[in-house]
Amino acid sequence: MLVLTRKMGETITIGDQIRIKVVEMKGNQVRLGIEAPGDMRIYREEIYLKVQKENQMAANWSLDDLENAVGFAGAGKE
Description:
With 78 residues, this protein is an alpha+beta fold. It has two helices and three strands. The N and C termini lie far apart (60 Å).
């Protein structure tokens, strides 16, 4: 892991399209401003991990699971 020290208002650049700027420091928190292409997904890590977990669970569904869910949902309808 690359570790950098930045002061308030300073920026780091990743590649040609991503800039991260320290916009506020308050107590033990740092607020960052990120400039990146609009099609690039940017997440807080805890959200990214949650999305990954949900995608993994969705990928593990089988056709039988879907058919069972549809059968269960339609069981009370006449």
